[in-house]
Automatic annotation (TrEMBL):
Binds 1 Mg(2+) ion per subunit. Catalyzes the reversible reaction in which hydroxymethyl group from 5,10-methylenetetrahydrofolate is transferred onto alpha-ketoisovalerate to form ketopantoate. InterPro entries: Pantoate_hydroxy_MeTrfase (IPR003700), Pyrv/PenolPyrv_kinase-like_dom (IPR015813), Pyrv_kinase-like_dom_sf (IPR040442). Its main location: cytoplasm. The active site is at residue 183. The keyword Transferase applies. Homodecamer; pentamer of dimers. It comes from Calderihabitans maritimus. GO terms for cellular component: cytoplasm. This is 3-methyl-2-oxobutanoate hydroxymethyltransferase. It is an enzyme of class 2 (transferase). Its EC number is 2.1.2.11. It catalyses: (6R)-5,10-methylene-5,6,7,8-tetrahydrofolate + 3-methyl-2-oxobutanoate + H2O = 2-dehydropantoate + (6S)-5,6,7,8-tetrahydrofolate.
Length: 277
């Protein structure tokens, strides 16, 4: 498979060709995605919740992001990799945002960075793009600042918020983003935004009209047990398959059915006799 480029993604939008992105946080998962038809991998800061067991994405550090991005990049040479900027890594100053984004590209090896927010990050986005860093935006429900937007719920149901989100999408495009994640907004609003801007939108809980769709790996495969958001479709329940396999292993150990002869090594009768003396 050929790695998509930001130019290719824009062409796909123009041609009405949809694409998919999924999160990955480690080498074996990245390899599986790399061998699939999925166009993009997001090493999201959702890793804090689904991989590290934090209550939110807020505690995730730059070092944690880099650690996981490096593993994913090694496993997915043919897939476009997006690296999330974690909370607190781009809001202190434009310089800080450029330094941390540069780490994600140079140390991590990702193809671009993603950051959350609308108007408050427009100038940062402009500076990053000017510094040569491809930037993916992310508006709607922004988990890093969920408490500011009233918790984990749909954004843009009222006219004022919806209008602001539309204006933020336009402002981010003007600042130079090459793509925009729309999280948890009404499908009609996502359609309006998708029609209004020329860079591809990628929806999660944003309806079918976005140019692409993204899901969290652990959500779509039944590997995250704490809750299942309404916008998630579970394409498999690997959690129950894994638990069944673990219990089978345990039962076979208890019943001395594992290991079998073909999993074991042996020595000849003579050697055994010599050992026993
Ligand atoms: O971190 C993440 O997984 C994300 C997606 C929900 C878009 O940002
Ligand atoms: Na994220």
């Amino acid at each position: 498979k050929e790695k998509v480029t930001t130019t290719k993604l824009r062409e796909m939008k123009k041609d009405g060709q949809k694409f998919a992105m999924v999160t990955a946080y480690d080498y074996p998962t990245a390899q599986l995605v790399d061998q699939s038809e999925i166009e993009m991998i997001l090493v999201g800061d959702s890793l804090g919740m689904v991989m590290l067991g934090y209550d939110s994405t807020v505690p995730v550090t730059m070092d944690e992001m880099i650690h996981h991005i490096k593993a994913v990049v090694r496993g997915a040479p043919h897939t476009f990799v997006v690296g999330d900027l974690p909370f607190g890594s781009y809001n202190v100053s434009v310089e800080q945002a450029i330094e941390n984004s540069t780490r994600i590209l140079k140390e991590g090896g990702a193809d671009c960075v993603k950051l959350e927010g609308g108007f408050p990050v427009v100038e940062t986005v402009r500076a990053l793009v000017r510094a040569g860093i491809p930037v993916m935006g992310h508006i709607g429900l922004t988990p890093q600042t969920a408490s500011q937007v009233g918790g984990f719920k749909v954004q843009g149901k009222d006219a004022d918020t919806a209008k602001r989100l539309l204006e933020e999408a336009v402002a981010l495009e003007e600042a130079g983003i090459f793509s925009l994640v729309l999280e948890c907004i009404p499908a009609e609003l996502a359609k309006l935004i998708t029609e209004r801007i020329s860079v591809p939108t990628i929806g999660i809980g944003a309806g079918v009209h976005c140019d692409g769709q993204v899901l969290v790996f652990h959500d779509m495969l039944g590997l995250f047990q704490r809750f299942v958001p309404k916008f998630v479709k579970q394409y498999a329940n690997l959690g129950s398959i894994i638990k069944q396999a673990l219990n089978e292993f345990h039962a076979e150990v208890v019943e001395e059915q594992f290991p079998e002869l073909n999993h074991s090594f042996s020595i000849s009768e003579e050697v055994l006799a010599a050992i026993k003396g």
